[in-house]
């Protein structure tokens, strides 16, 4: 019985300390309304307005300056670029005005 309890405790500890996704939360203004946007750079996905997009890093500073991701999915592609002080936006009209949550 002790062995089983020990195994369960070890499994629970591993589940809690396992790899955590790096998720960045933004609020984006579109037509005067605010919508959440999430970037998960562990599984390389972006979620905005109930749609999911796959991501690739944008390493060319001419595209995004400080940094960003290239998103593809739902019949479209765009760059989601971030700047200093939590500002971000898309290269199309999907979400041109975003700010990191808590900033």
Describe this structure in words.
The protein is of the alpha+beta class and 103 residues long. The protein has one domain: Lipocalin. The chain contains two helices and eight strands. It has helices spanning 2-17, 61-64; strands spanning 23-30, 33-40, 45-48, 51-58, 67-73, 76-82, 87-90, 97-100. The protein has an eight-stranded antiparallel β-barrel. It is globular and about 30 Å long. It starts with a helix and ends with a strand. 20% of the residues are buried.
Give short descriptive properties of this protein.
8 strands, alpha+beta, 19% helix, 103 residues, Lipocalin, disordered N terminus, globular
Largest sheet: 8 strands, antiparallel, barrel
Low-confidence stretches: 3-18
Strand sequence of the main sheet, in spatial order? 1-2-3-4-5-6-7-8
Coarse shape: globular
Extended strand count:
8
Distance between the termini: 50 Å
Q: Roughly how many Å is the radius of gyration?
A: 18 Å
Beta-strand content estimate = over 45%
């Amino acid at each position: 019985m002790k062995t089983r309890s020990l195994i369960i405790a070890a499994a629970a500890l591993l589940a809690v300390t396992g790899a955590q996704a790096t998720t960045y939360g933004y609020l984006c203004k579109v037509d005067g309304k605010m919508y959440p946007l999430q970037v998960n750079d562990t599984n390389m996905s972006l979620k905005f307005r109930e749609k999911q997009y796959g991501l690739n890093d944008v390493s060319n500073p001419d595209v995004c300056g400080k940094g960003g991701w290239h998103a593809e999915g739902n019949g479209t592609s765009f760059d989601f670029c971030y700047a200093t002080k939590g500002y971000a936006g898309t290269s199309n009209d999907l979400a041109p005005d975003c700010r990191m949550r808590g900033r």
